[in-house]
Amino acid sequence: MHTRHRRNHRSVAIRAASLAGAALLLLPLAACVKKASTAQPTATPTTTTDVSPGDTGPSPVPRSSIYAFAGTKAFGVGEAGKVLYQATSGTWSEPQWTQKGRYAAAVSRTLNAKDARLAVIDSQTGKVINIRCGCGSVALVGDSIAVWADEKGQLFQLDITSAGVARKLNVSLPQGTPRLAAAGTNDTFLLIASDAPDGDNGKGAAYSVKLDGSKTLVRDLPEVSTLQFAAARAGGGEGARWAYQVIESQGDCAHPGPILVVDDAGAATTPDVTDLLGGKTAEEVDVAVLSAWWEPDGRLFAVMQSWICDPSGGTPVVKASLWRLDGGKWLAVEQPALRLEHDLAADTKIVLTDDDKLTLETSSGSTPIAADVLSVVLPPVVP
Question: Is the keyword Signal in the record (predicted)?
Fold first, then answer.
């Protein structure tokens, strides 16, 4: 029997890519996970700007109709049923938003790690900032700061409003080297560190880091290879609420660790995933979060799936579908053929179907928006 911690499997059964800041590029079901390149980017990334208009500029509809989407062909910002601006080429990570919802960012990943680039779209002007970052993910902090870690483990921060040269952000860590920055809030971001070379697994930790370099340990990670997903929400106190999951081992098969939810007081819980196990044990089944977000009312939702990893390519247990956290347990949200949906303004909703098509649903019908989409993210706060 193949258990989740054996590393000699030849494939990984993960359906989609790009998770809430997630840094590991997740391949389709039964596709192999390749070890990340060890090529190194330049020490200080440079920036360029251009304007990449979509179908039209912003319309006078409420700003709550704005959203960002990403997939295997493009990363873009849409408003209701129209694509306003987009950056094409490459498979993109799940988009991130600044706290007031003006800027959206995502990372375009390539086989050569040094060529990975960050794109930031200004949803009001259409300006696109392109940065060769050598990074796997990005965290947006406050209203205008982007933070990422390059392949050497060096952290950088960029003031999006100035579009200047990124500055180094030095953080002294007692355990591990910075690997991935993800899921920013008003003044902090989640940082995953590891003592192993990039692409390998070893001991590490998750930290909550401020822009002045100060940090707080969120959790020690006895085994970590990379980040599976991360989501953040500004807490009721001084802290932040986190939800995240790491890939613990990644030989020929990637094995996600437990899903952690941390409140703003630092208390962590591991929600029950029994309904995703298909009657089997947690040692037999891998469960992964593909995307997660908090609704304005504080409820946590996630797109999740599970599978049994085996030499033939993996056997699905639960396909990618929508779940919500209720009383410490993940419960399925019954939505046939839908991966996720988000309510927008004026009785409309944005819908992502199982065949990777993004549409706008209203009382008068459905409007196609984009194809080959893997994730859709709304701004955390409506301006």
Answer: yes
pLDDT digits (tens, 9 = 90+) for 41-95: 333 344 444 333 333 333 444 446 889 999 888 899 988 888 888 888 778 988 9
Closest by CA position to 225, among listed 196, 262, 189 = 196
Q: Which domain holds residue 278?
A: 47-377
pLDDT at 298: 81
- Residue 248 sits at the vertex; the CA angle it makes with 230 and 169, to the nearest 5 degrees, is 50
Query: Per residue in 295-341, pLDDT tens?
Result: 877 888 888 889 888 777 678 899 888 899 998 999 998 765 566 77
Average pLDDT over residues 236-261: 78
Looking at the domain assignment, is residue 350 inside a domain? yes
CB 315 within 8 A of CB 308: yes
- Name the residue with higher pLDDT: 360 or 344: 360
Q: Which of 36, 109, 97, 31 is nearest to 68 (CA)?
A: 97
What CATH number has the domain bearing residue 301? 2.130.10
Cβ–Cβ < 8 Å for 309, 286:
yes
Residue 8 domain-assigned (yes or no):
no
Closest CA to 165 of 138, 189, 123, 132: 132
pLDDT number for residue 242: 86
Query: Based on the structure, what is the number of domains in the chain?
Result: 1
Q: What is the number of other CB atoms lying within 10 angstroms of the CB of residue 78?
A: 25
